[in-house]
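Extended Data, panel c. Modelled sequence:
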Amino acid sequence: MAISVIMPALEVAQETAKLVAWLKNEGDSVRKGELLLEIETDKATMEVEAEADGVLAGVTAKVGDDVPVGQVIAWILSPGENVPGASGTVSRAAEEFKASAAVEATSPTDLSAAEQPVRSIGQISPKARRLAKEAGIDIGTVQGTGPGGEILASDIRALVEAKTNQTPCTVPATPVPAQPQPLSSIGRLMAERTTQSWTTVPHFFVEREIDASALNHARAVLGPGIEQSQGIKLTHTDLLIALVARTLTKHPRLNASWIDGGIRLNPDINISIAMAVDDGVVAAVVANAHTATLADIARQRRDLTERARNGRLRLADLAGGTFTISNLGMFQVDSFSAIITPPQAAILAVGAIKDRVVPIEGGVGVRPILSLTISVDHRVADGAKAASFLHDLAGAIEAPEKWLA
């Protein structure tokens, strides 16, 4: 049976996605789960897998096209099948070519360096491929540093930087007026979405400073065990994801969504983590964070971070978020206010933990203080609900062992 390949949608408000690359050509055989194409949305550049075995046919979308979500852009056919609405079938020649290629691929050959096959698609990350194309770099000349020799975005950036440093700097005789820097599709759509959120969602903000002594202690106590057993470094973000998710179980309005003029209470608590990438910010999702163990959360966060850095986030990594955490503490930011990601009702902005002089039992002392600011959609929750949430979250941060046991 012919299987349609459609342009997938990541979120309700998404209307189009840009086709970045076909990873298979018309007439190529594909297997279920193989990478088929790359698309670019306001979230990230992502890879889409084939949903069935067969032959790719009836390709209608070209690289660079902005395609409406849900539109059929190709078909996966069984040998001899017609493309729906067309009279052509998958040619026997194409099938024989693929069969012979498969035989050759499994047969050992003795090739000279000049005859070695071109690096396969699977050995270069999508972002690295795009950066190499923009910089005019032949990927066949690049030595990858990733697993199995995979070429990463960092490899391409290093080559571009080295090339720039070797290029003599020349100053034009006549100053040239600066031209506006064009945005990538991700940057442009992110700008549109944040503008839409800021101008249509009635934001309000509640701030709270919290003693982070117990949070630091929990990381020092729990971190070594997780790192030894799982090989994962425990971060403050991991602890906050766990504590925020567990606190949200008592505050469903802060885990709700504004959809079609009404409030939807989400049954699951999926924490989106704002991550900076070259083209903007993506929000990767730690699913069911309220029931996940701290080790599971750390593992999910690490895997999402690695895929985000290499431009290999999947659709599932970005879907279903119900509450967002944006942590700029690693940049020594004291505090900030974040813009809500619709249809979510709230986002928590996390500043740096810094030692401050504070009153203690009638005297003064130095304590590590954490600044939190929650941005809330006033259509979904009011100030009292936001303040109550921060009050309970502060209690969890000041006694994390009660919540993480």
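The first strand starts at residue 3 and ends at 6. This feature is highlighted in the accompanying rendering.
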